[in-house]
Amino acid sequence: MPVKPDSSAKAKNPFITGYIVVYNAVLVAGWALMGVQAVLHLSRTKSIQGLYNAVEMSLLVFQTCAVMEVVHCAVGLVRSSVFLTGFQVASRVFVVWGIVYSVPESRNNIGFPLLLFAWSITEVIRYSFYALNELNLLPFIVKWLRYTLFIVLYPLGVTGELLCIWSSLPTVKAKKLYSLELPNQLNFSFSFYYYLFVVMLAYIPIFPQLYFHMFGQRKKTLAAVAEGATKKQR
Amino acid sequence: MSSLTIEICDPRSEKTLHTISQASPSTTILDVKRDYEKKAPKYYPDRQSFRLEPRGRSLKDEDSLATLGAKGPTMKLYLRPSVIYGELATKPMHRVVQIAAGCWTLHYAKRLLETVFVHRFSHATMPIFNIFKNSMYYWGFAAFVAYYVNHPLFTPPMYGDAQIYAGLVGFLFNELGNLSIHLALRNLRPPGTKERRIPKATANPFTWLFNFVSCPNYTYEFGAWTSFTIMTQCLPAALFTFAGVYQMSMWALGKHKNYRREFKDYPRGRKSILPFIL
Q1: Contact B45, B33 (CB under 8 A)
Q2: Which residues from chain A sit within 8 angstroms of residue B159, using beta carbons?
Q3: pLDDT in tens, A144-196
Q4: Which of A30-39, B30-39, B84-93 bottoms out in mean pLDDT, i.e. has the lowest?
Q5: What residues pair up with A91 in beta bridges, in sequence order?
């Protein structure tokens, strides 16, 4: 009896695999570079002054690059929610461009290195995870790190973000940054200063939801690993 | 130095509300406001507005009685508390602002009347949470648009009366169109039934849009709010229009699909909401 080909098995397109691996590998390198630049500056000068200048290029380039991940979801390259990914990327891009880049005064507080620390470690691990997973070469330790370190790094990162936003407030208010006052031909007004308060308040309901979602993912992933291990033993 | 007496009066009744007896030529309007605040604590200075004439312009806080030309021993000031917009509220209101209020009211009054007298609903009820959700949407946007259109610093449209009246004509035309479609749809469904038939153009020229789209009522509403936005040249109105058109497009696409699924002989070439496009 002739064997019918399994039409349900999707042929893994090597170009797609290649692209995904390269994309994630480049981002691992980028965030590692940024981390190294930050560490070098801090160990050399023992000061936060000038830290932004030391990491500016890599921070701006590699964080903005993450916008591609929303595109990946939209075109189906990656199986993730466009909405969730978009929201997370938007939040990071907002902090980088809207606060740190736009308001130099926000770079001189402890929140800034805190944020760099949390983000760089998280991203190096996360992108390594994606690259290795795509090649089916994912060691347990990387998976474990991705789903464990967030417990500390996520709150640290959020604290850093909030501190940076908070320290940007006086300048935003004084310079009326990104704000539009009446009267004008659009008959619209916008206060970036008050908007920042709304953003900070939004962290209160949103952060716990995302944080506990990650805990749920951790439980699911590590349980699956444990089940796989016990199956092997049998 | 002679001391002045200030009489604070209501602009409508001319009744004296308050008297300040130990004023001097160097007393400022702000001083007067602070004094009045002691009598009526809820009217802090920003909520007060004084004029020399019942319908005069608002006086500035820094104006002193001397600069205002106080001569005699007594001086009359007219008080107008302003709630939302502060001291600016005495600025004259442009005609387009009143027209806009009229249009907004007309649209929703028409809707209410249609709900009672025109529409034939498939379902007698809707989920209770919808009341909360829909009310938030309508009241929220109404407040958002109204705040800017009615603002004392509202800027009339760039092209003046031409833009305003073109917008108004467009709005009324599209409201009529929307009403025509609602009436045509009602006549399509026998009273007391839930029958569905293919909607077709009737003698009313407004219904000829059925030849191009499945849901011309939504097309006309798109037109009405776009006209309103042109008429007021107000970004919040544009955002309201965009939100509504987005939602209506989703509905139109759904209805269009249902029509095509239900009727084998459904006219081809019809789009859902935008002729030839969507």
Answers
A1: yes
A2: none
A3: 999 999 999 999 999 999 999 999 999 999 999 999 999 999 999 999 999 99
A4: B84-93
A5: none
Q: How many whole angstroms separate alpha carbon B33 and alpha carbon B12?
A: 19
For B204, the token pair is 């009313």
CA torsion, points A52, A55, A61, A65, in degrees to nearest 10? Answer: -100
Q: Tell me the backbone φ, ψ of residue B6, rounded to 5 degrees.
A: -110, 130
Q: Are B139 and B133 in contact (CB under 8 A)?
A: no
Dihedral sign, Cα of residue B30, residue B31, residue B32, residue B33 = positive
Cis before A183? omega within 30: yes
d(CA B275, CA B278): 7
> A207 CA to chain B: closest CA distance, Å?
24
Phi and psi at residue B193, to the nearest 5°: -110, 175
C-alpha distances in Å from residue A165, one per residue of A104, A151, B100, B270: 11, 22, 39, 51
Which of B97, B149, B153, B158 is most worth mutating to test chain A (most A CB atoms within 10 A of its CB)? B153
Burial readout B91-109 (b: 16 or more C-beta within 10 A, e: otherwise): eeeeebbebbeebbeebee
Picking from A3, A57, A65, the residue whose alpha carbon sits closest to that of residue A28 is A65
Whether residue A161 lies in the annotated active site: yes
Distances in Å between the Cα of B8 and the Cα atoms of B2, B34, B159 are: 19, 13, 42
Q: Report whether A112 contacts A52 (CB < 8 A).
A: yes
The tens digit of pLDDT for each residue in B159-177 reads: 999 999 999 999 999 999 9
Question: Which chain B residues have any C-beta within 8 angstroms of a chain A C-beta?
Answer: 148-149, 151, 153-155, 158, 232-236
- Interval B221-261: pLDDT, tens: 999 999 999 999 999 999 999 999 999 999 999 999 999 99
Catalytic residue among A101, A154, A178, A203: A154
User: pTM, whole model, 2 decimals?
Assistant: 0.73
